[in-house]
Amino acid sequence: MKKIILGGAMALFGFSFMQAQSVNDLPQPAKDVIQKHYKAWKVDKVNIDKDDRQEAFQVKFANGAKMDFNIEGYLTEIKGDTEIPAALIPEKVKYFVQNKYPEQKIIEWEYEDGKHEIGLDNGTELEFDGNGKFLKVD
User: Fold this and answer.
1) Which of 74, 79, 4 minimizes the C-alpha distance to 32?
2) Residue 51 pLDDT > 90, yes or no?
């Protein structure tokens, strides 16, 4: 009985990661972001990332950067060492950073629980509400 349960669990686990093997397996909004803003970057891995909230897609690039997309294919997180394209940052957040931190680059962005979290290249972390209103510096 243990072998059957273990075999079933392994099959389910393996299947969840086999569902997304390349950028072509992603939902269209995710493919659009990668094609438009990260076309020159080499994709290293595409996985389905399951956490306790929901399934999501994770794309890892050869340069170490990673992007997370929700199950519909909408961007939820970008992390890396290079500047995030301005078009991917909400206008109010981008404007705040340009005015308060003009020498810094946004290298991390996450949208979670209705808040935008931004990481700058100097290590500063900023938090904004869902409308782009500044909340705090971490």
Assistant:
1) 74
2) no
Residue 53 structural domain: 1-74
Q: Give the residue, 106 or 3, on which the prediction is more confident.
A: 106
What's the confidence (pLDDT) of residue 56?
87
pTM of the predicted model as reported, rounded to 2 decimal places: 0.78
Q: Does residue 109 share a domain with residue 57?
A: no
- Same domain for 20 and 70, yes or no, is yes
Q: Measured between alpha carbons, how far is 11 from 14 in angstroms, rounded to an integer?
A: 5
Q: List C-alpha distances in Å: 31 to 42, 79, 81, 110.
A: 14, 17, 21, 18
Q: How far apart (Å, rounded) are the C-alpha atoms in residues 97 and 21?
A: 36
Contact yes or no for 69/76 (Cβ under 8 A): yes
